[in-house]
Known about the structure:
Strand content: 15-25%
CATH topology: Spore Coat Polysaccharide Biosynthesis Protein SpsA, Chain A
Structural class: alpha/beta
Shape: globular
Radius of gyration: 18 Å
Order of helices and strands: EHEHEHEEEEEEHHEEEHE
Number of helices: 6
Amino acid sequence: MPAAAALCLLGSVRTLGLECTGATTLRRIARPIAAAIFAFVNVPEQWSYDRAEGVRTLVRAMARDAELDLRVLEVDNRSPNSAFKGVPQAKGLKRCWEVVGAPGAFEYIVRVRTDVYHGFAMPERLPEGPPTSVAYVGFLGAPGCSPLRKGALWVDDRFAVLRGRAAQRVFLHDFAAELEALPLATRTAPPPLRVTAPECLLGVGVAAANAQANGTAVALRDVRGLGRGSSGPGGSGVCRRANCLIVRSSGNCSAEVRAAPWVCPLGEAPPTLAL
């Protein structure tokens, strides 16, 4: 029987090797739900074979330490950089769809990045019952990011729990296609119509898919309001800030986390999402 959930680890390597990013992601997000791991990560084109192999060793070690099943590991050094924010993640999103989403073996797919600290944890049990199409995302913003689809929300592109085929297709397949088309689109569209922010592109994609949906619209849920207070060793029972933070420093990330008022500190037991 296939696992109920899969986790796709995507993006440029960046700060993946820090304890607060890669290892914490697997411990807080993947391990509670026993997710099968599919890693599609990028390294610079100029990296040697030995350095790329070091990334493979790192990912295997993280999965082993978290006692998780690493199903697929791909380290790509053939994707050129792009001047457009978000474009480098397109190939990983597409591979996640091709390998994990398209076969339809998983009711839940969790999409995470390589450089994010998650100040929250997944519950041990995911919702059961009649399948729905829903995306739990890191944040939802106000509508109006696109002049062509004014009702579209800003939708976080760093973290998502995707239940159902419609949500998985929009967030993995359709979003990847929009990112890949972005360089050409910005050259052909007049300035007022250009949308380049990935959070807006994703929101427009969800709105467009829902406008054409026939009973399979994708519901959006903001995880910031789903955190139950932390408990256990080090937990005060009051931290409810279910949020995540891109870690940019290659050193210890404690200072970055402390400086962000919207995430639970490293010393607190993380709040658990009530999905």
